[in-house]
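Q: Is it fine to ask for two folds in a single conversation?
A: Yes, each is treated on its own. Send the first.
Q: Here.
A: Result:
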Amino acid sequence: MVIALAVGLAVTRTQKPAEPWLWISAVAIGGMMLCWLLIILIGIFNRPRFLVLPYLRDKRRL
């Protein structure tokens, strides 16, 4: 995703048709950040409950 962002930035300065690369990589990086947030929430707080395995729901932390 970071490579796509770098390529998007480099190509966008020279050619206009490559502009979607910037938005594609920005959406991908945003999705990655959302996934990391979910991993942290599940690991530390066991929330949201429907994503935590049933046998781990009683544990408080990692």
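Q: Second one now.
A: Result:
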Amino acid sequence: MTMDDQCAPYCAKLKAEPFASIVPDRRPEVKLHAGIGLAKLAVGYHTWGGVRGGEIYGRTADGWELIYRVESGTQLDDLPWRKEGTE
């Protein structure tokens, strides 16, 4: 019996982490997130000069796809998901 066969009954119970954030000024620089809201919080973390910025990726069947890119110093009201109304 392979490892995949042994794990198959439990795979549905495991939570996937389909989002990743890359924040250059954070360690570790890349983190995985269970939801897009957590990735948005990581990139949109507000500092005295605006948000710290970074990139948010979503996992697809073909790999990782860029969803948002936010420049460091962007103001909260100028975050792309706020402009889309999908906070």
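Q: Anything structural to flag on that second result?
A: Two points. The chain has a mean pLDDT of 86. The CA atoms of residues 19 and 35 lie 6 Å apart.
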